[in-house]
Structures are given as structure tokens and as C-alpha cells.
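Quick one - inputs below.
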Amino acid sequence: MALTTKRSARPHGDHDHAHCVTDAIARAEAVCAEHGARLTENRRRVLELVWQSHAPVGAYEILERLRKDGTRAAPPTVYRALEFLMEQGLVHRIETRNAFVGCPQPEQRHVAQYLLCEACGDAVEIEIGGLARKIASRAAELGFAVAAQTVEARGLCSRCQQTGA
Amino acid sequence: MALTTKRSARPHGDHDHAHCVTDAIARAEAVCAEHGARLTENRRRVLELVWQSHAPVGAYEILERLRKDGTRAAPPTVYRALEFLMEQGLVHRIETRNAFVGCPQPEQRHVAQYLLCEACGDAVEIEIGGLARKIASRAAELGFAVAAQTVEARGLCSRCQQTGA
DNA sequence: TGCGGCTTTGTTACTCTATACCATGATGCC
DNA sequence: GGCATCATGGTATAGAGTAACAAAGCCGCA
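Output:
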């Protein structure tokens, strides 16, 4: 289960990833302000670390990096921050990897759907039109009331197909 | 993360669950025979234990039950059996629970989609027409080649809604 | 300005999930 | 019977997540 793939900070060709991070933080501040929630130093730092790449990051990897900062963090510190960030819609959990990734659209609540590259490790959030509704309505036909959905597809991104990974 | 919901052997009203188990084993034998794979005693036993209920079962719960049988099993024993059973399509993994459930349609390979009741714990495998194709084709538009999919919806089954769980 | 309640963080210890690694045994093929 | 392959045993350890309680910080308010 260990993720042996490499991490990339560039999901769709080269880009200024530092901008992704600063943008994510700025939007997080706006979202928290709107929700009346406190984006504390800890939480902000964890969010930054999640955004270090476009590949989902494990909680213990975040922990390690926090410790490199000189803080004496323990697992609950990280998990609590992640829980908060997920509540605010700033971070999503990738179930098939037990890992976390920043949400590019935190302003509006949505059902996250992901493409996960098995070669570079990147996660790309997509929204397939009508998919969430289709799942919910098929469930409803069976009398099942859907509260949350997980949709994750694993495979190869176009870049990794080309490089023959 | 511990699953605190109760387990049920009856996903859709009362039924003769013993029949589910014997049926699953019989079909597993046929599937393995066709694949030229060996359904050893261990593997058969693990499959039986997975089928003890329609709620996904954790690997360590299987381990515990194996030990009650008097065998001296260790985690790798269980995980190896589960890996084999998944390769044969006899068992599916429920990612959002880190647990395993028997497949009711092992003869034909398919993309498993699940409804997971948060009250009784049951998992119902469904196949929403066109959903897998829709995911794959939307991915293809983005240049992404899908190899595997996970679709899991959590909520309340009709029975648990009625009983006000 | 200091009290009281709430939220956030620290700390320890633990449970649960999963795999690496090496040794041993079974099976089938020739 | 010898050999390769597959399956299991067994130890140890990595990785993921949580319970429980203590301490610190923040905020509103008298």
C-alpha cells in the first residue's frame, strides 16, 4: 500500500506552483472568514504542507515536515488540523490512498471526484456533470439516502502515458 | 475510524443467509476452476468469513475468527488470502472502511459500486448503468487512461431510515 | 482588568491496518 | 526423485488513526 510513485508539483505541465500555494492560502483565509472559522497558524501551516504538491500527502508525512520546522507535533495535531480543513472544504481526503489533497474550489461545496495517476501520484479533481446526481437518484430508487460519495479513478495521466512511465 | 455500527446478515429484509454463504463458496470454486487458480483451505475459510455478513469485514476481524478456529494465523495469512480473493474477483475492498466484502457476481468482471449504510453497516453492491463508462470517457477527454475505479456512497438504507436509526 | 467559558493545542499511550522479509512446506511437472 | 513454483508460517515493523486528559490561548463581559 505504500505509495511508491513519485510526487509531482506539476499536474498539467509546468506551472508556477508557488502561486498555487499562495492562492490556496488566500482563498482559505477568505473561506474561513466567511464561515467565521479560525485559520490558526497550525492549520495554515498544515494547509501549506498539503499544497506542497498536487499529489495527496499522508498525515505522517505532514507530521514529519512539521517537525522539520522545529515544532514538536504529534499525530493528533495533524489530524485535528486536517479535520478542520476538511470541514471547511479546503482539503479532501483520498480514500484509496489514506491521504489528503488541497481542494482547488473551496468556495463552493461540491462532491469531489478524482483522477489519480499511478505513475506520478498526482490527483486531479474533476466534476463529471450529473454524476453525483445519477448516483444519488439510483440510490434513491433503492430506498437509500445518500449522505456522501467517493469517486476515485486510478490510472495514468496523459503526461505519464507519453513518458512511458 | 472504528466501525461502531452493527453488522447485519440481512441487507434486504430477512433471508436465508446460510444460503448466501454456500452459494458464494460454490461459485468461488467454479470461478477458480475456470481461472486455473487454487482455492485452498485457507482461502476458502477466509472467503467464508468475509461472507459471514453483508457488512464489510476488517482483516483483523477475520484474523480473530480464524484464530477461534484454532489456527495460529498471523496478519499476512489473512492479507494474502484476501489479495488472492480480490484477484479472482471474489471479494471487493471497501476503501472508505478499510474492509472487505464478498462479491455477489464473481463470474463476470465489473466495476463495483457500493451503497454503504452508516447505521447497520451493510454494503450493497450495485451497478449504475453507464456510470463506469461515463467516468472513463470523461477521463479520456482529459487524456487520462483509467485502470480502476472506486465508487462508494454512504448514507442510510431504507430499512434503517424506517427504524429511525 | 480580571473572571469564566469556549476553542485550540500538547502529550501520552494505544488501537487498528498493512507490509517486508526470511524460512518452511506443499504441489505439480518432467 | 529432483526441481521450480506456489502457498503458508512467523517475526518484526511500518503506517494510519484515535482516546483521554492536561494545559494554554482567545473572547466576551461584568
